[in-house]
Amino acid sequence: MPQKPRLGQNFLFDAQAAQRVVAALGDLSARTVIEIGPGGGAITNLLATRAARVLAIELDRNFAAALHVRFDPHRVTVVEQDVLQFDLAAASAQAGQRLRVAGNLPYYITSPILLKLAASHASLDLAVLMVQREVADRVTAAPGSRDYGVLSATVQMYGAVESLFTLPPSAFSPPPQVHSTVFRWRFAPRFAELSVDESAFLRFLRQAFAQKRKTLANNLRAAGFAPGAAAAALRKSSIDPKSRAEALPLESLAALWRHLAENR
């Protein structure tokens, strides 16, 4: 019987795809895995046999109750909670290790979940996530491509991302209107490497990408940077003033931020 959609989810029932998701997490025999939105338990069922411990974070009380009955509580702990409120740092501390994460993310809160994982990077090792294909294209995009933007830059500041495979609507119940892509995210923040302050640089990225059709110089001006200081920082960073943020690698944007910070 098809799963009833709840909370914006479309449930995976392609067994081979579930196997590929779990395989992409690597050796789990000594690992604690967080599963976001297990729903009917297609991925949970595999994790329960391969991971040392699974924390299944499920907001829907009916699915949470069914998971409680289905799985051995010594292997799978079902947490009936909004993942955005779940304390990943406490779970990591209790496990005594950085966590691995799997999840078929609800479309309507994909970006907030990605940002929460980024903010919790110190507690995480890697994540294998299933999202709407268009979101995965943005997350994994390279500088200079059509899909590269502030979400790409923000996620990639927290570690390398790679697209793994794409699934058609028929792999889910009920079938969504879009394709879904699975990507892997290895958490290794680049802030120290690029000599930038985390919160200040993330704020700068939002300013630099504020208007995609505007040049970087215009976006800096709109953000309140003095034209002379912006022009000098662009020159010192060897960046063409007519460039747009989406054309630049993180290394160049970091250099620009450092030169701008010198005059603030």
Descriptive report:
The protein is an alpha/beta fold and 264 residues long. The chain has helices at 15-23, 42-50, 61-70, 88-95, 110-119, 133-139, 150-156, 198-208, 216-222, 227-236, 250-262; strands at residues 11-12, 32-36, 53-57, 76-79, 99-104, 124-132, 161-167, 172-173, 180-186. The protein has 2 domains: 11-186, Rossmann fold (3-Layer(aba) Sandwich), CATH 3.40.50; 198-262, rRNA adenine dimethylase, C-terminal domain (Helicase, Ruva Protein, domain 3), CATH 1.10.8.100. 38% of the residues lie in helices and 18% in strands. Helix 2 links the parallel strand 2 (32-36) and strand 3 (53-57). Mean pLDDT is 93; it is low at 1-7.
Gist?
The chain has 264 residues and is of the alpha/beta class. Helix content is 38%, strand content 18%.
- Derived from helix and strand composition plus strand pairing, the structural class reads alpha/beta
Q: From the coordinates shown, what is the CATH architecture of the largest domain? A: 3-Layer(aba) Sandwich
From the alpha carbons, calculate the radius of gyration and give it in angstroms: 20 Å
Supply the number of helical segments: 11
